[in-house]
Amino acid sequence: MQTSTKQDGAQPEKSGWIGWIQIAVIIAVIVVAMIMTAVLSSGGGREPQAAPERAATPVQIIRPAQAAHQVEIALTGSVASPSDVTLTPQVGGRVIDVSEAVRAGAHFEPDEVLFRIDPRDYEVAVSRAQASLADARSALDQVEAEAEINRAEWRREYPNREITPLAAREPQLAAARARVASAQADLSQARLNLERTAISFPFRGRVIESRVEAGQLVSAGQSYGSVYDIARLEIIAPIAPADLARLTPAVGRLAELSVGESALNLQGEIVREGASLNARTRFIDLFIEPASPDALRPGQFVDVRVSGPDLEESVVAPASALAGLNQVRIVRDGRIEEIEVVVLDRVGDQVFLRPFDFGQGVIITPVPENALGRRANILTADGAAQ
What we know:
The protein has 386 residues and is α+β, with helices and mostly antiparallel strands.
């Protein structure tokens, strides 16, 4: 029994001693790790070295030059007539005379008679209206005479009393005057219908199509062809909103017009802008009035060149200088930077920019995106480093 008791007491004593050894080992490991970390971070007593700088990026640069420039926009338009006028008689009847000017493609002058409708029915109507007017005037004269007699009798019978409207025959006079006015209106209408038997237009025009022949019976209000007014021909040229902004204000500017591949060159003037953008192209229409529309025909294509404002203060650079829509990359203090610029105009492989600070020069060769901020190795035109 005594032996068993000694063994039980020795077991806890041995376990406590082992635990302290394990704690000491852990502490020693931690201390060693801390010492090694401190040594490594301090470089073993050596001073830290800076990371080597990336290699310089080779670039070619130019120095943009001052240049006066006038904005010029090239467009393509087409000739159009605001509206075609139908060849529609206002009275009906049989055609008795057709002018050669009423054939498709023919020209006609203002008030030139294109065709005539048999006027005899309308001459009869004029005579009838004249007779009706004469009859109405005669009836009015009679009623006025009767009214004068009644007024004289009234003054004789009732000298101190005012005559009544009925005794003065005022209702009859009003009715007679109305009949005269109606007869005059009928006569005016009959004469107007007679004038309308000769079909003409108040402008100089050209016939698009005609279906009128001598002997043909035509009806009032029925279309028998169409014409257009030559003086109202215009050129419609779509323009991008960005280009329109470069011309602002566009209305009133002169345009050089060249019709297709022919040698026909005309002058024109922008008279108005479209009220809305085209739903499909998102362009705006410019309406140009040609100085000499006689040589034009609806549907013709026209090359349009519009001169915009003078850019007296601008610098010119190759188009390759642009790194985006309105960004360029420059070299300043030997390093590559990207800045925004204002593009005033583009002509071929050149761009005209608002003057800006371009440092040592504008880069005209491609550079990678990660080159921003790097040193620049400026090359000469033959590729050698400066």
